[in-house]
Structure formats: C-alpha cells, structure tokens
Amino acid sequence: MGLNSNRVENFSDPEAPPPPPAIEATSVIQMPPVEVHRVCLPPLKTTAQKLRHRLSEIFFPDDPLHKFKDQSWLQKLVLGLQFFFPIFHWAPNYTLSLFKSDVVSGVTIASLAIPQGISYAKLANLPPIIGLYSSFVPPLIYSVLGSSRHLAVGPVSIASLVMGTMLSETVSYNDEPVLYLKLAFTATFFAGVFQASLGFLRLGFVIDFLSKATLVGFMAGAAVIVSLQQLKGLLGIVHFTTKMQLVPVLSSAFHQVDEWSWQTIVMGVGFLALLLITRLISIRKPKLFWVSAAAPLASVILSTILVVCFKSKLHGIKTIGNLPKGLNPPSSNMLYFDGPHLALAIKTGIITGILSLTEGIAVVRTFASLKNYQVDGNKEMVAIGLMNMAGSCSSCYVTTGSFSRSAVNYNAGAKTVVSNIVMAAAVLVTLLFLMPLFYYTPNLILAAIIITAVVGLIDYQAAYKLWKVDKLDFLACLCSFFGVLFISVPLGLAIAVGVSVFKILLHVTRPNTAVLGNIPRTQIYQNLTQYREAVRVPSFLIMAVEAPIYFANSTYLQERILRWIREEEEWLASNNRSNLKCVILDMTAVTAIDTSGIDTISELRKMLEKRSLKLVLANPVGSVMEKLHESHILESFGLEGLYLSVGEAIADISSAWKSQP
Amino acid sequence: MGLNSNRVENFSDPEAPPPPPAIEATSVIQMPPVEVHRVCLPPLKTTAQKLRHRLSEIFFPDDPLHKFKDQSWLQKLVLGLQFFFPIFHWAPNYTLSLFKSDVVSGVTIASLAIPQGISYAKLANLPPIIGLYSSFVPPLIYSVLGSSRHLAVGPVSIASLVMGTMLSETVSYNDEPVLYLKLAFTATFFAGVFQASLGFLRLGFVIDFLSKATLVGFMAGAAVIVSLQQLKGLLGIVHFTTKMQLVPVLSSAFHQVDEWSWQTIVMGVGFLALLLITRLISIRKPKLFWVSAAAPLASVILSTILVVCFKSKLHGIKTIGNLPKGLNPPSSNMLYFDGPHLALAIKTGIITGILSLTEGIAVVRTFASLKNYQVDGNKEMVAIGLMNMAGSCSSCYVTTGSFSRSAVNYNAGAKTVVSNIVMAAAVLVTLLFLMPLFYYTPNLILAAIIITAVVGLIDYQAAYKLWKVDKLDFLACLCSFFGVLFISVPLGLAIAVGVSVFKILLHVTRPNTAVLGNIPRTQIYQNLTQYREAVRVPSFLIMAVEAPIYFANSTYLQERILRWIREEEEWLASNNRSNLKCVILDMTAVTAIDTSGIDTISELRKMLEKRSLKLVLANPVGSVMEKLHESHILESFGLEGLYLSVGEAIADISSAWKSQP
C-alpha cells in the first residue's frame, strides 16, 4: 500500500515538472498485485482565478473575442468594426449575382410584409399605418447591425397580440388614442432597452428558460385566442370584447349575433379558405412557397377590387379607410417617462421584448445552422434591441425576425441582409404612393391573413413528441397552453416557466441512485437493472448517485443509500450469502457538492462505521475533489477511502482482505 | 461488426430468459479484435409504472411500510399501532433504570424550561404565563406521538421572535390584547395544520430548501436582533419600538436615554455576565453541562430574592407581576377563522410553522444519528403538527423541539420521551402552586436569559467554513443574515432561498465540460486538467458533460462543445498533428435529458457531419438511453454511434479505421 501514501496530490506550481506517473514507482519498489492510481486535485487556483474562470464561463462561453488574439492594432480596428457592424464584413465581397438573389427575395417578402404589417398592427389595436412604418425603419437598422443572412424583420403576431392585450386592459385605443400610441411606443422603447441590455450584459441565456415545451404550448394558446378574436372581423361584429381569455372572447362573438353581417361572413370565409388552401399547397410542395407568399397581397388586391366594384351592395363590409401618405413621422416626443402608466409600459415592454427576442433568436439560430454559419446570440440581441429603440423614435412598435417571412426569404433565395433593404424600399414606395389604394380594403381580409399566419403556430406534432418523450415537458406545454387560454399571457408564461424550473429542481431533489454490477471480463461497472449481464461483486455494494449532492437532496440521498444497504443486507441474509463488508459510492456523476452534501457524506461514513461497513468513494470529479479536500473530510476517510475507479477500489480492497484474513 | 447489429436491446418481457451475454456469441463466430458491449435499454415500463416508481421515489424514498410486508393481520395491527403511536413501541420494554435516568433529565430540562418559557413568551409579546402553558400540554402530546428519544419540547426563541414580529406589525398587544391572543392561537393552529399536512402528504423535503447556509445566516441575524431588542429589559426602557429591523431597534434604544434606569442596568449586566460565564464553562467542559442548565432558574430565584429584600431601594426595576394560578384554560373558542386578520394569521402560522419544523426536525435527526436510531422525518412532522394543533386549543403558542434544551436532555442522560412527561409534571406543579413566587421576578432577568440562549445561535465557525468551502453558500448565508437584519424575517428568508435555488439553476445552466485523456496502461479516461498523467488520444476529442442536458443549458452546451472542437483543431493545426476525426461525448454524468437536449445532440451530430467529424456517445445512463430511444434519434446515429465505454469506442473505431485505410 506504499503506493497510496500520497494519493491526494496538488499541482499548485504550474512550472513544476509533472510528478512521475504511478507506474514508475511500482517498478522501482516491487510490482504490487494491484495497480492503484491516485485521485488528483485539479490545479490549485486562487479565489480570484476561480471567480474569473466562472464568470468567463457564464458570460463568454463562446469566447467571442478569440479572433482578436495576436492581431496588430490595425487588424484589431478592422475586426472591431466588423464585429460591431457586420455590414463591413460582407459588403466588400458583395457581388451583382448576390444582389439579384436578394432583390427577388426582398420583393417576395415585401408582398407578404405589407398585408401582414397592416394586419398585425390591427392585432395590437394600433392604426394599420403603424404596421407599415414598422416594416420600414427596423429592417434598415437591422441590415447594418445584424449578422443573420435570412432574418426578415418586421412586426410579428405574438408580440403584437401581447402588446395589444396588455395595453388594452388599462387604456382603450378608441377612448384615448394618443395615450395608447404613447404607451405603445414607450413599451417598444423599453423592449429595445431590455433586449439590448440582455445582449450587452451577455445575459442572453435568460431566454433559454422559455423552453421549447413552454413555447409550443404558449404559441398554440395564443394562436387559438388570436384566431377566435378574428371572429370580430370575419363576422363583422362592431362591439367586441378587448379581453383575451377564451370565455369572454367566445361569449362576445355569440352574444352579438344581431351584429353579424352575412356579406362579411361569405367574403371572409371565402378568402380564408383560399389563403388556407395556398398555405397547404406550399406545405405539401415546398418549391411552390411563392404561392402562399403571394396569396395575401393577391387577396388584398382582389378583395379591394371586389369592394370597389360592388360598393353599393356590400355596404355591410367595414374597410380600412383613410391612411396617411408619407414616411414615418418622428415619435421620440411621444415617449412617456413619468405618469401613472409608466409601470404598465415597462411591464409590457419587458414581456413583448422577451417574447419577440425568443422568436428572433430562434429564427437566427435555425437558419444559421441550416446554412452552417456562426452567429453570436448576444450580438443579435443587441442588434434587435437597438432596432426597437430606433423604431420607438420613428413611429414603429415592437419588431423582430418573423419565422414565417424568414422562411419565405430563405426559400426565395436570400443571400444577405440586403433582402431586408429591398423590402424596406418596397414599403417606402407603398408609403409614399400607394396608400390611397388601401382605402377600400376590407377589414375581413386582415382577419383572414392573421388566422392563416397564426394557424402555423399550432404545432400539434411537437406536442405529441413531447408527450411521447417527456411527460413533464408535456405538462409544462399544457400549463402554458391553458394558462394563456384561460388566465392571461403573462401568468400562463410564468406558470410554464415555473413548471420547467420545478422539473430541474425535482431532478436535483430526487435524483436517481443505482446499484452497479461488474460486466464480466471487463473493468466496466454498470447499472444492474439496465444491464442484465452485469453481476454483483460479493461483499461489495456499489452505488452510483446520478446528481450533484446539494442541500436539497442530501437528506433524501442519505435515507435512500441506507435503504439500499438495508435491502441488500436483507437479500444477502435470506439467500445465505456472505456478509456485506464494503460500500463503494461511484461519484462520477456527482458533478458538484455543497456544504450540506459534504456533511452527509461524512455522516454516512460514521453511520456505516458503527455497523462495521467500510465506505469508499470512487472517481470524484475535479470540483467535488476540491471541496472534499477543502473541508478536510478526506482526512477522516484515510488513505484507503478514495479510488480512481470502482475497479481499482475492488481490486485493492479485496487484495487487502486476502492478505489479512 | 456483426456483434453490434443488435446493440440497442429491449428487455420488454420480464419472463423471457436473459439474452446470451455478448461473450458467448464471439466465441462461436470468431474472436474479433475488439470486444464491444451493447448499450442496453432499461427494462421497458408503461407510463403508469414509471409514474408509480417516480411517485414512490418522491414520497416514500425510505419505504416506511417495509416492516408491514409479509406479516399476518394481527402483527400488522400491532405494527400499525406502534407506527402511529410510538409509545406502544417502547412502553412494553420500559424499566425502572430507564425511568431513573428520565427523571433526572426531566427535572434538569424543567429547570431550564420554566424560565425560558416565560422569557420566550415575552419575546413573542405574549403574557409570560402562555410560555408556561406551552411547556405543559405539547410535551405530553409529543410523548405519545413522537419517536425521538431526546427531543425536549417547548417554546423556542426563533419561532417566538418571528411570531411576535409578524403579529405586532399589525396588532399591538398593549392596545388589543384579546385580538392579539386570538391571532397567536390561530397562527399556532395553522402552523400545526401546515406541519401535519407536510408530514402527512410526505412533502417533508420542502424544509430541505432551507439549506444549512441559509439557516446559519438567518439564525445569526435573528440572534443579533433579539439580543438588541433585549436592551429594553436590560436598560429598563418603557417606550420601545415594536419593529424588528436593526435601525429602528438601535435608534429606539439610544433615543430613550432618559428612561434608562441605573439599578436595572447594574443588576441586568451582572446577571447577564453570570449566565454567559456559566455558558462558557459548560462549553469548555461538557461534563459540567448542569452548570449552564441550572443557571437560569438559579438566577431567577436569586434576582427575585434580591428584589424582595431591597424592594424600597430598587423601585426602578420592573417585575413580572401577577400570574394566574391554575392549568391551561381551553382556547378553542379563541380561534379566529374569519375577519380582516385571517390572512395575517395564516401567513404567520406558515412561516413560524416552517421555521419551528426545521429546528425540530434538525434536532430529531442530530440525536438520532448520534445514538444511531432511525426516525421518520415525515412522521415526526405529523407529531409536531398535531401537538401544535392541540396546543392552539389549550392556550399554547407555537412549540417545537428546542436545540439547547434537547442537548441538555441528552447530556443529562435522557433515555426516552418520558423525560418530557417528567418535565411537564414539574411545570404542572409550578402552574398549580408556585405562580405567586414569580411576582417579584424582574424583567431584566428574562432579557438576560434570552440573550444567553440566542448567543449560541451565532455560529461564526460554520460561516467561516462556508466561506472556505463554498463561496455561493456563503453568499446565501450573508443574504439571509443581512436580509433579516435590515429588511424583514420573511423577505430575508425568501432572498436566501432564492440564492440557494439560483445556485442549483446556475449549475444546470452553465455546467462543467471537460476534455478527457487516457491514463496510460488503463482503460480509464480522465479530465486532462485534473490528471497530468492523462494523455490525449490522437484523432479523437473525448469530452465529458457534467450535467443533465436541459432546455436551460442546451444552447450553452452546443456553443461550448463547438468551441472545444475549434480550439482543439487550432491547437492540432499549429502543432502539425494529425487531424481530428472523431468526437466522443462521455455521457456518464449526463443524468437526464429533455426534448431540447435531444434536439441539441441531434443538431450537433449534423453540424459535425458537415465538417466530416464523427460524433459518438459513450455510456448513456438508463433514463437518457430511454429518451434517446423514444425520440428515434438513435436511428440517425446508426449502429456505430453508441458505445458502452470510451475505451471500447476508441478501440472499435480505431480498428475500423485500420481495416479501411
């Protein structure tokens, strides 16, 4: 056992030569029957070094500045410019053929963005023109700051819906239009500030807490609510609830039967069917993506012509009416920084900000991975945030990258963000010259466009997969779905995030423990229930704890381990096997330990000692080893209490037993 | 490779014979160069079976009913009686020698419990007699229901303090004594209901979330506040704040200098010094525990005699005054179930309930582990809860097992809960006959007793150990200390619990990843930074992820793994080494995976494939394997993407490369 005398070793001095491997020592003394390796401590670090390492892992996991290393000052300046303004990165290599692709895709998404912009503004209870403004300035800002090549920027349904709901609960656009507009711009401003600071402070991981399961449920719930709300436009109802829960919306639709207009219903349902069919075609044959991309604008034109032609007969149909010509007016004077509704504006800003950020970043990541280029999520957040801050000063409301339009952009062959510039140019032309054409566009077509857009958000296949693979994920999904449907958007989201976090805590509070056995003729020890070929090692109980040992589970683990031992002893006694003599805890999956955990291990050792059982730890990872060492618990374990692997522990302890029977 | 064709295998039918071990197959065909084992799925279970297993792990980890298995009906009845009333367990074997020990220890704790009971009631702003009532009924109830042999039941400082603070913020005892009493009894009732239901629903793990670090800080903060509040008694101040924050208490003490009474100060400081010295003696020499145990009662007697003898000269000293003789009056008619303060009573009940439960269970566990007997935490919670519910109907306020008195009980040689019965008997005698003796007991002695008791709660050594071992634990400790001191008890606790939970989430959000190397001449692969002797395997990058892969970390892990690969490739290129060809993910410590994690693995595989790198998983644990299988991701990995150990993966892949150069 002379080999073990220095088994815990520190590499405090990085300059010192590495210690001779254990193998050499054995060859000098005499080959012992069992080769035993030392469990090492990780290199010693000061608290400041540890803190620095930890912070860099938390805030800079992707090491965004690695390109700047070992570069001259000039190169660093160029790289810095390219870092902050990606346009400098791609503009020098921009070619005519790239431009041709971008023009085609830009025009395609413009034909989608114009009707959707008008519709989504209605969804946020804002005047339709705000939707067009929001499709003009933000794409231009993004094209300078953004690094995604396929993101199509503009208003999106979820953020519009949430902003509309949250503001309308307190202020009605019909009663106080100026205050409502002020609040909308202020919420947009705070959304931008929140997004930019998340990115700037590199706290982007906050949006990861909206798990996919939560989002699937949330989006489906929002889509159902939004679609039902469109009954207002499709049925031609004038007095409709501004609430967003399922019950008031449905009762509002069916209590106002006298306001239903049959002309609106016939025309609305017709166009809705048309749009849904084009959507189906594009899903079935992805090459025909332009069918669904062109359909909204075509429907708008067609329905406007219909209304103009049959003006006298279709008097029941409500139209958009007069839209002001001209570019975005400045709105920085409308930002609202003190007054009774400031808290509402900030809250709305943060919630729409986080939702639009989630959508935008998901789009960016999806297309980056499809085309295999790298994007920095935190930098994108800054870009989206600055774009919203600029938008709030130029009569725009919250914008982000839209999933549906970005997919069209990608399919139409977009190569760079220039497609956004082309789209903005098309919107510019519309704003300057084509506004009067929308005078007779019926509201019902906007409702049909919204429904067609949000139907895609109901992803029942993803929900089914959640059910198949992970029941607790499915529960989170259901919670956010029903929460949004019956309570409210912020509460539904909060409940779903709560369920997701609870799932993590539950995993930590009640971790899995397993009894291991040896796979014959190997040094591999595996779970006995998972591997039938694994066999128990007589006199040993080998246990694996599959979680960090924390205050939240230390009591549980102690009870559970004692129960395993009790059950093992009962089984051995009833089968007339040899007594249990040693318990090995495989610590490979114990990725962290805190002070409560250390106390538990130490107490467990004492309890087992009283029952003349030996407790041995196998393969503690670096950080756990460090804490065990710092708490001086290793001294009580002695030299023979710590092994590098289960195999070595068993070999060494068995040989020690044999030599002293 | 014929061996691998069925590497993923299901043991769906528990009756089927186990599959032939891999070894046999090889001996029949032909010994291949590398022996490769299959990664198995755990036995297939239905959703209901999984749910049942999961629920039994959550609620019955200690399998409390295992004694009932395979017993006759009569035995089950006896065991059931013993289970619910532990008195049936020990009473049949009770002997005279046990009784002698219990009488000695019972009398000892009574001498401590009587002065402490009166003092703690003052701390809760209740009449002193309530403290004596609370030392009579609850110990009797506990002696029937409880299974700890050393718990000394009665009022405790922390719960008294918290109840006093929370109730006094809304209702003043001096202005509305009956309402205050009603609220105190009602809060006690709800504390009991909450405690009993936690135990009954087997949700005892809720108290584990008050980690040791949180409690160390909280207790120290509470002790500081309580001690400063006793300046009222020690200085003889009449008009004192009822607030509990540091600033108002200190300013109240030093703004009422004209109310200070020198006689009170001299006598108070003298007795405080005496009590602190006896405390020190008992700490230095544990055998002299009776010195500090007897000191409070001795001081009470001595100070009362002093006041009686020098009545004329000591008129500045306030005394307890008249206490009613007689047993606990019933108080069930004083419970308050509707009215404006019900919410306050419930909130106070829950917070004092959880705090007193935490103390009581910690005491139970400490002494059970010292004397090596088993206690069921959840059953103890039911006992403490029922005792408080009964207490609330007999003029008692919140009680639990006191740490200091239980330690004295243990040191005085208590053998069973009979010592509680003896103590209750002593209190009974006091209540019936000795109450007039307390008429001249000065209030200052109560203040001195409280300070001496709470000084022990300041555990600076534990705080120093937290700082040494775990900086985040220390932060939680500081948060609860300063939160209690400057904000309020519930908020301080909430902040500390938040920090503790944040620590868990941070560990999951930013898990450790490590690059592994082979320890020469073994099949062990270990962290390269921890083990200097470990060497890289050419053409392979072996990585270990030390956390479950969840929505909260899947993006981070993807970025971090890609960065490891990029850094490895840069290093290889700059050192003219052979190219990277294969990335092995050691999944041993990946104890769980959710749908986002599965997507990440699948996306990572696709991304690496585009860069012609092979991704291989080694040793996924049972639950992860199950999810990978259910999500059909294994099919995309193919037969060669999954190995039982890193060693087998390297051996098999290398030999495949050699055979097809």
Automatic annotation (TrEMBL), chains A, B:
Compartments in which it is found: Membrane
Major localisation: membrane
Transmembrane stretches, start-end: 73-91, 126-145, 152-173, 179-201, 213-240, 260-281, 288-308, 342-364, 417-438, 444-462, 474-502
Bilayer topology: Multi-pass membrane protein
The keyword Nucleotidyltransferase is assigned to this record: no
GO CC aspect terms: membrane
UniProt region (Disordered), positions on chain: 1-21
Keyword annotations: Membrane, Transmembrane, Transmembrane helix, Transport
Domain STAS intervals: 530-653
Protein name: Sulfate transporter 3.4
